Backbone:
């Protein structure tokens, strides 16, 4: 996930992780236990709970900046179903900034890990990351996660669509 400036959040700045995330989620699940979650899509909403940016040069987005973020995950009835924990490193500063992010999704039955580069996160555009592994019922997981920003105030809220293959 990519960082957000504090002005955009009111009190915090972000990345993603994972990871960069939301208030209510549409928990769509099209898989079955028999397939061990393969070919399954899970949709959740994430709400950023904590986000801290550690700038190399205060007042600008610079190569080497670090962002640490934690979000709560919700289903469509707004029941908390998990969390994300992530960190990002700015690899290209300036107006067209880019961040390399690692995010872990803690979900019922296990965890998913993701990795990806996010471009222009400050604009809150959509981004994708690769699922690099998992634990529990997500052991050996592969696929991708697509993120859309739903809201930026009063908190950053994102919809994560998790595609397991």
Residues:
């Amino acid at each position: 996930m990519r960082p957000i400036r504090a002005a955009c959040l009111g009190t915090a700045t972000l990345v993603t992780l994972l990871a960069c995330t939301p208030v209510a989620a549409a928990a769509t699940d099209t898989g079955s236990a028999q397939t061990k979650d393969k070919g399954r899509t899970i949709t959740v909403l994430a709400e950023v709970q904590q986000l801290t940016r550690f700038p190399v040069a205060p007042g600008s987005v610079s190569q080497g900046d670090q962002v640490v973020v934690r979000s709560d995950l919700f289903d469509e009835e707004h029941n908390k179903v998990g969390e994300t924990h992530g960190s990002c490193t700015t690899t290209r500063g300036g107006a067209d900034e880019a961040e390399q992010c690692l995010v872990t999704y803690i979900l019922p039955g296990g965890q998913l890990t993701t990795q990806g580069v996010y471009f222009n996160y400050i604009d809150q555009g959509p981004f994708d990351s690769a699922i690099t592994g998992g634990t529990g019922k997500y052991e050996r997981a592969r696929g991708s996660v697509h993120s859309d920003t739903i809201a930026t105030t009063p908190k950053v809220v994102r919809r994560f669509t998790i595609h397991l293959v």
